[in-house]
Amino acid sequence: MKKSTKFLNQPSKSFIKNAIVLTITYLLIQFITRITILITIDGASMNLSELIKTFLFGLIYDLTTWLVIGLPFLIAILIGKTILFKAFIFISNFITLLIAISQILFFREFGTNFNFIAVDYLIYTHELLGNIWQSFNVPAIILSIIVAAAIVYNIQLKFLVFNRKSYLNFRHCIIAIVLPLIFVPIIQSSWRESISENRYNVEIAGNGVYEFVRAFFANELDYDSFYATLPNEKVESNLELMMENEEFNSEFGIQNAKLLKNNFSEKPNVIMITVESLNADYLKIFGGNGLTPYLDELVNKSYVFTRMYATGTRTVRGLEAVTLSLPPTPGQSIVRREDNNDLSSLGDAFKQNGYARDFIYGGYGYFDNMNKFFEGNGYTVKDRTSIPDNEIFHETIWGVADEILFTQVLKSMDDHFSKNEPAFEMVMTTSNHRPFTFPADRIDIEDGTRPAAVKYTDWAINDFLERAKSHEWFDNTIFVIVADHQALAAGKSTLPINCYHIPCLIYAPKLIAPGKSDRLISQMDLAPTLLGMLNLSYNEKFLGHDINKISADDERIFISTYQMLGYVKNDILTILTPDKKAAAYHIDDWTNATYSAVEIDPQLLNEAITYYQGASYLFKNGKLKVK
Which has the closest alpha carbon to 503: 282, 197, 342, 355? Predict the structure, then answer.
């Protein structure tokens, strides 16, 4: 007898039955999750039409997601081993329920579906797990999920077919793989925006897994959707007032047109060393305990900003602040965003003055999108791939040892000097990063710990400066040493101010007299302040100030995580949160970050919104582009 060639033969029917059971299970769990969120969130719309659209769009997103995440189960069926198929089903139930519980708790905390805040938490895994452990009875929750997964599994057993006839043939496997390739690109998260004016309903309609993946690749937490806002016209007028001597045009954005006369006999080179995770309190001037003996000595020979504060907690935030002179936009740094080329920048200001511009990094610059960002903004990138193998005698996963990196800086400067062109070198170190290893016999502490890495980085900077002294360009070079952020940015208080304090030294023994500024200055103010010290003319779109050109009343700083946006002025910390709310605190002790809750000052809130919304608005609308 000939074998049946019908499309829906018995094995196909068995497979389809199993696929339907698994699909219905997933959709039911998602439906119950939405119902739970809907009845536990105060404020969602209960309008029948909007409820129907909420669940209808939710079904579309759920089916799309299941087409993708259901593929492993199809593979399990193809393998043809009953025990593997059963194991996959139980694991599927557990993971689906775990995500559902996480989504419910996340919604209770933030009033929204998974977004870049959730992605952010994966970056801060230690803090995330610690917070979960302290906030919830984790063993009880996990046990409950296991029991629930087992109950669902036992119900499924009544409908599933576990025999050879349940296994899929190759033809149907191809169809199952092609379907998501067709539908996933078509489905858009933006469709749910038409559901309702009520933001809760829009968020409830989304599928947690789908939104998480979308947020991961979108790299953005939209300011207007999640934070307190002002009309864009008001933001524009506020910026014009707050920037005082600058100009604001609604078509082109902010214009910092500085016409200054350079007093140097020839334009000095600038080498900006952005040091990985260099806390201010490592240095003796801020209470350090001897980890930075060379920087401690250099303080007396440099112009030092004693009250500079980083804008964020990651390298890309530091690079964003010093390069673009902008407050941090919520979500991901502009360094990692799309369409971040041809922006107004410190490098462009130097370009206007005839400088060559390099970004020099000891690691692979594809990390954090650094190469693409700096190349797209006119820098020549020289990363790990540019370093000859015979010059690398020590490296970690993050990059070569700092002393090897600085050798590349010396070579680059020699090359520019030979061409008789001034140079701006943007240098990013890596050694003060786990695993904290470095070449032997450099310092008196064994490697493997952060204190040792800090002391090695201090040694490497001094070694670089000593080597640089023998080069002809040294006397006409300004060295800027600034941290990208602190090593740790977590504390007992919200946005602990002491965890953003960073050192900034400007060393140029033949050009700039040693001194000390106790002015409150943001990391994003460094670019215009440095250009002002050099008396270089430029036309840029900086939101930062030249600290030497503003009054003490206008001093302010910005501190943030990906979701918490802080604005500090007059000892008041105003925080914008991703639920369109704000809070205010008086900073009682800057060193220990102790705060007292106070009433929100309308003027300070207005300024905070203007800066943060303004930065987001200008970037989103292309008004930071170089014209």
Answer: 282
